[in-house]
């Protein structure tokens, strides 16, 4: 171990050297050199972890290495020793099983399952990521092809990995997999289809995780839809590019993840609202609040099947969408008022608003009509605002929330929505005309 300690000291000294003083050529050499060292380190990680697993195999019982060290599994022991993540250790062990030397029951040595990959990993020619993608795809084809064909594919993929990126090797590995499999890709697609799932977890600290497992066919459609609507540089769907004011205080501020979330919720709401075949009344979520909390705007309210409460001041925003009904109770729990459907805009009124506004009416927003809620300019409850087109405006969920809680103001002039930003965003407090209807834009010119 003395040699290992000296080597680590040398590497630590090299890592401590500043790279900012290097010339361009020396910097590029350093990048390549560091990657070679990383691949050699990968070889050490994989072979050492595989040997720990071999010495901890089940048949050794309590005499196995991991059991003697107080761990039920080899992966747990390696995690403790390395402080690496469980997924990293799992990847090392998976590759290790594919490239570690084998032996028969009587101890006769055998080659690794994938000897060409093993040799390339051992001398630092390829890293763990490439080795895993090669062996993973070839393992899928192995039951259906000959040993010689598998060896040919392995050699070809390793040779390509010496000069191509891991992503390109992954593409070729999948091509080899499907070429070697005489049944083609259909059985695999059918198997993946049976594994599809969507799981909605319980919320923690006010947030819940939604997990979707889907096939490549569905993934392509999802990415196309999200790419069309989630990009911050998307050309407005109903407005000319010249209509957008670069100095507007309402420019896009959401992160990619936040935009993705809003696209997903917009699709869910649009699908539900457009489902004319579903029997029965439209699905509504009930929000329950005490009368005193509703009047003061303080306290909390509770949603169906959700553990965490919401602020009572958020109720009007939810009810505006038409998907939530408000239930007001007294201190004893008796229901004093249950929101009625008459406060919701009818489908015909929403169609008229869509024609007038062209989608979300907030200045600069490009959300299409199907992703919006009909909002009362004069609040239905607080200001006796009528539920008619002249008092309605279409808003996407992010801008709907911004209007309720972000300090923005809305007014209707001759049936047209105008918005005003708070002073800290727009010191001029100018009213900006909403709508993204191109026909009206052309008429104004």
Automatic annotation (TrEMBL):
<protein>
    <submittedName>
        <fullName>HNH endonuclease</fullName>
    </submittedName>
</protein>
<dbReference type="Pfam" id="PF13391">
    <property type="entry name" value="HNH_2"/>
</dbReference>
<keyword id="KW-0540">Nuclease</keyword>
<dbReference type="InterPro" id="IPR003870">
    <property type="entry name" value="DUF222"/>
</dbReference>
<feature type="domain" description="HNH nuclease">
    <location>
        <begin position="348"/>
        <end position="401"/>
    </location>
</feature>
<keyword id="KW-0255">Endonuclease</keyword>
<dbReference type="Pfam" id="PF02720">
    <property type="entry name" value="DUF222"/>
</dbReference>
<keyword id="KW-0378">Hydrolase</keyword>
<dbReference type="InterPro" id="IPR003615">
    <property type="entry name" value="HNH_nuc"/>
</dbReference>
<dbReference type="GO" id="GO:0004519">
    <property type="term" value="F:endonuclease activity"/>
</dbReference>
């Amino acid at each position: 171990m003395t040699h290992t300690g000296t080597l680590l000291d040398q590497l630590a000294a090299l890592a401590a050297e500043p790279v900012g003083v290097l010339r361009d050529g020396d910097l590029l050499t350093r990048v390549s050199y560091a990657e070679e060292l990383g691949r050699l380190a990968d070889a050490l990680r994989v072979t050492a972890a595989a040997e720990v697993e071999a010495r901890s195999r089940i048949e050794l019982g309590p005499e196995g290495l991991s059991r003697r060290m107080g761990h039920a599994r080899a992966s747990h022991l390696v995690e403790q020793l390395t402080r690496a993540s469980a997924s990293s250790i799992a990847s090392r062990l998976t590759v290790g099983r594919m490239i570690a030397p084998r032996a028969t029951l009587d101890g006769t040595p055998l080659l690794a399952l994938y000897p060409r990959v093993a040799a390339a990993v051992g001398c630092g020619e390829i890293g763990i990521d490439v080795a895993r993608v090669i062996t993973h795809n070839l393992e899928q084809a192995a039951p259906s092809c000959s040993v010689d064909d598998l060896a040919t594919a392995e050699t070809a993929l390793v040779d390509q990995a010496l000069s191509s990126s891991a992503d390109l090797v992954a593409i070729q590995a999948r091509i080899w997999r499907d070429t070697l499999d005489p049944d083609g890709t259909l059985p695999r697609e059918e198997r993946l289809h049976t594994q599809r799932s969507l799981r909605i977890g319980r919320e923690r600290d006010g947030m819940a995780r939604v997990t979707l497992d889907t096939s490549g066919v569905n993934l392509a459609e999802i990415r196309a839809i999200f790419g069309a609507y989630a990009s911050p540089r998307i050309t407005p769907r109903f407005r000319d590019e010249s209509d957008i004011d670069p100095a507007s205080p309402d420019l896009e501020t959401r992160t990619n993840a936040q935009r993705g979330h809003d696209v997903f919720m917009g699709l869910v709401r649009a699908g539900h609202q457009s489902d004319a075949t579903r029997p029965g009344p439209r699905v509504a979520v009930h929000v329950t609040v005490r009368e005193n909390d509703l009047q003061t705007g303080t306290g909390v309210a509770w949603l169906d099947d959700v553990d965490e409460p919401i602020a009572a001041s958020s109720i009007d925003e939810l009810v505006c969408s038409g998907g939530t009904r408000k239930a007001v109770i007294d201190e004893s729990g008796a229901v004093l008022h249950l929101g009625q459907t008459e406060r919701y805009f009818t489908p015909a009124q929403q169609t008229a608003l869509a024609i007038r506004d062209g989608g979300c009416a907030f200045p600069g927003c490009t959300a299409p009509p199907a992703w919006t809620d009909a909002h009362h300019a004069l609040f239905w409850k607080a200001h006796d605002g009528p539920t008619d087109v002249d008092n309605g405006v279409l808003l996407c969920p992010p801008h709907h929330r911004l209007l309720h809680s972000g300090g923005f103001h809305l007014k209707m002039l001759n049936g047209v929505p105008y918005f005003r930003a708070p002073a800290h965003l727009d010191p001029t407090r100018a009213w900006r005309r909403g709508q993204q209807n191109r026909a009206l834009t052309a008429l104004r010119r």
